[in-house]
Amino acid sequence: MNGLSRALCAAGLVLGVALAGAAYAQAPKPPSAAAIATAKEILVIKRAVSMYENAVPGLVQQAKNVLLQSNLNYQKDLNEVATKIAKDLAGREKEIGEEMAKQYATDFTEQELKDLLVFLKSPIGKKMLEQEPKTIDTSIAFMNRWAQTFAEEINGKFRAEMKARGKDI
After folding, report:
1. Of the candidates 65, 63, 60, which has an alpha carbon nearest to the alpha carbon of residue 83?
2. How far apart are CA 64 and CA 97, in angstroms?
3. Residue 131: C-alpha distances to residues 3, 6, 18, 36, 92 (Å)
4. How far apart are CA 120 and CA 130, in angstroms?
5. pTM of the prediction?
6. What is the arithmetic mean of pLDDT over 51-67?
7. What percentage of residues in the chain have a pLDDT greater than 90?
């Protein structure tokens, strides 16, 4: 039985090494510098920086507000410290842009990114970039109105069903 245990252990080890090797071989290769550069250009055209440009001061403000809730007597000091921390950490939001570019370069091939860049620079691509914020805002406004109306309908159905059971709510 001892020999059988050793053989099974050895077989398990060989299988484990083989599976690990196969997993390593299937791991995606990191995106090329050219793909990342193209992705960065796309993000500039899409004005993606506007999504995160205030991340550092915003997060510093949030942390300060949390600390103020239980330390009101330190408001002056916390305001001064928040200013210092925001200054010390200024620029760190660029890490977000770097990661976004890497993600684009991972999710799209280099050629797809080049094609996307050509599209975004075309008249229809430019129109899409100009119109998209309005289209999204209008869609979100509709979704909010729809959700409010639908929630009222659901609430009415709850009340009707409960009334049918003899329970006014």
Report:
1. 60
2. 25
3. 72, 68, 52, 26, 30
4. 11
5. 0.66
6. 97
7. 83
